[in-house]
């Protein structure tokens, strides 16, 4: 049964495991390792708008970060089967993110929301944007007419997204965020004080020098590396597309409560 209201930490941990947002997640081990290897081999599709140079060319170093910050199995010989996200690390990340949201609210900062995974996380971002607006923050409106090679950069329910063929599009790319920030600079507008996002939207913002927090799955190591290096302030580990987006509601309620926004 869904949790009503704001869960306790223990209740949220149990919910994350039950809904497979964390715990034994759907992403298989072989997919995780394949992505870690591709990042280490400089496949920019897996860099999420970051500039990693040659600092992460050993996939075992990538695995070590993911074991520490996400809770995947740390055994390099474990190649196939179930992999995991530690729900305690998920909640730890939510609490760190809540601290940055609280700072944004206290300073009535300009905040930009974006998602490369609208099928899972759009409403998490929308609800967070609504709470920050109620607290006096300016939710950044993106410039009109922006495009990338993948499609149109649009804003829907206060959240920047990529639209392609009349469909909200899943993307790892940092190009949509690059388009937004470049257009804002060209127009003489101040950049956001904070970006709350995921995928390349969060990665490129952090690389560009904007405070950035976000969410990432266990097969998407770039943002966890960025947090380890200090380029991204917070990365919350979770399965970013479970069977129902409503499963994220208790998580969002907990985040907003911890931030003093509910």
From TrEMBL:
Any Pfam family matching the protein: Phosphatase
Highest taxon of source: Bacteria
Listed name of the protein: Phosphatase
Lineage: Bacteria, Bacillati, Actinomycetota, Actinomycetes, Kitasatosporales
């Amino acid at each position: 049964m869904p949790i009503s209201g704001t869960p306790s930490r223990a209740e949220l941990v149990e919910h994350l495991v039950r809904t497979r947002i964390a715990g034994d997640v759907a992403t298989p081990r072989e997919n995780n390792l394949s992505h870690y290897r591709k990042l280490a081999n400089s496949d920019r599709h897996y860099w999420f708008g970051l500039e990693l140079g040659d600092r992460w060319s050993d996939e075992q170093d990538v695995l070590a970060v993911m074991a520490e910050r996400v809770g995947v199995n740390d055994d390099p010989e474990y190649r196939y089967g179930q992999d995991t996200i530690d729900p305690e690390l998920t909640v730890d990340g939510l609490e760190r993110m809540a601290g940055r949201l609280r700072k944004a609210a206290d300073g009535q900062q300009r905040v930009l929301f974006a998602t490369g995974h609208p099928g899972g996380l759009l409403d998490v971002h929308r609800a967070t944007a609504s709470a920050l607006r109620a607290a006096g923050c300016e939710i950044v409106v993106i410039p009109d007419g922006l495009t990338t090679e993948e499609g149109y950069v649009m804003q829907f329910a206060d959240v920047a997204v990529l639209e392609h063929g009349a469909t909200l599009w899943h993307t790892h790319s940092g190009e949509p965020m690059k388009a937004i920030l470049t257009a804002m600079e060209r127009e003489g507008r101040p950049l956001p004080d904070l970006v709350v996002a995921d995928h390349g939207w969060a990665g490129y913002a952090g690389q560009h020098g904007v405070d950035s927090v976000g969410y990432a799955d266990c097969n998407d190591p770039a943002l966890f590396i960025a947090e380890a290096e200090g380029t991204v302030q917070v990365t919350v580990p979770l399965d970013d597309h479970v069977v129902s987006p409503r499963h994220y509601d208790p998580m969002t309620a907990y985040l907003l409560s911890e931030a003093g926004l509910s």
